[in-house]
Amino acid sequence: MRWASAVGCGLVMMLWTMTVPAEAPGRHVDLYCHRTANEDVPENTLESLDQAALLGCDVVEVDVRRTLDGELVLNHDGFLERLTDGAGEVETSFYGELALLDAGAWMGERFAGMRMARFEDALRLARGRGVRLILDLKTKGMGPDVIAMLKREGMLERVQFNGEWSDVKELLPGANTEHVRWLQPGVTAEQVAQAHAAGMAVVANFSANGHAMDLEAMRAAVRAGVDGINVDYPRLGAEAAGRPVELRLRALREQADGRAEEAGSEAGNGRRTAAILELARYRGFPKLRAELERWLLDADPAISRAAALALVTSRPRTPVAEFAAAVRSERAPVRANAAWALGMLRAPTREVAGLLEDEDAGVRQAALGAVARMRGRVGERVLRRLLQDGSPGVRGAAALALARHAPTIAAKEVPARLRLEVAQGRVAYEDYVRRKRPQLTAAEIARITDGYRCQMKMVQAIAQVSGLEATRALEEQAF
After folding, report:
1. Cα separations in angstroms, 9 against 6, 339, 398
2. How far apart are the first and last CA of the chain?
3. How many CB atoms lie under 10 A from the CB of residue 161?
4. 3-class SS of residue 329
5. pLDDT of 204-242, one tens digit each?
6. Which of 142, 153, 167 is nearest to 67 (CA)?
7. What is the rounded average pLDDT of the residues 43-51?
8. Residue in 68, 10, 74 with CA at minimum distance from that of residue 36
């Protein structure tokens, strides 16, 4: 992490529990973000654009270039060495090449896997998040394509143009009709009043001028009456503008906890899970992790599941040790959710080994599903036994786990078990026909569906192992 980012993160941690002022009634200071949330998340990625919106930015600047095959993408430099693991130029690369490059790992391991963003995807995200864009066009001659895409995505009235936009002027004479004066830190109320008298809005710039972290100067600009501030650190800008991110986080935390009168209601749970998943999108707030771990233990299965998902998808991901309490929970859904999360995190198999013997079939199934993804070995004896479990879901999951950890045994035993599953299904169907196809009960439909799902997992397991016996088993089911 860069020094400035570390300082910014520390400041936000201090602000977490502070009493923060609300924005003045009737006055909204627009928050402009330079090159997406570039100090928090790798620049010009969809994740960085999304983070800028989450942190309260009204207007976000992005850089647009054209690839060799005509795709419009977000990239500032043109060359690939600084922001990706590739080399060369955007303009001399096919988009398919660029899509293979990692555009996040340069900033830290937790950002690995991010990709260079397509312009149209950025437009859709901006429209969905309700933010406006400043388009810094880096390649000449893009005007017609840019305008066409803006019209198609419904963003033509929500952008300003910069850079190489001379052809845009010719095609859209009314473009950039907003009159904005950009001033530097130290702007005075007199300067703002003069600009306003001339029909100009005022934006104070705190990017690339040595004042990127000058919170007091940002506050002074707001007090002077500016209409917007342009920043590299949206969290600082939001604080200066009087609408700290912490206020939003606090409201989401309260929503995630829910009100007593909503406990167990569908609407109440919907609001709670929505808040939990929204909180998981915020980066750089370490204290959120403890909250997610607390919700993972919630008595409501949906709340617990949402927290498990949030812990898996948030960056940085929660260490596996933090799931220990959930694995030991007295609530079966919590144990199952913890097992699922540990599997998605590719944790060592020892983290869920004890759950393979759980009294709850749903937990056993979740643990086996996790084992099929995890590192380490699991004893083949327990997997072979679970292949004969009384629950179809457990048997299907056991087949996948056996294919992962004991493929030679799986190649022999899973096809045999699948034949038995199919035979049992055929017997049940023949009995149904003999009974002149009566209307099935919900319980009967559930048994049929569970059996079918079990068979599909066994087919997948067989497909994962090699050998003549596995191939013959697949042919047998196919033909």
Report:
1. 5, 31, 44
2. 57
3. 22
4. coil
5. 999 999 999 999 999 999 999 999 999 999 999 999 999
6. 142
7. 97
8. 74
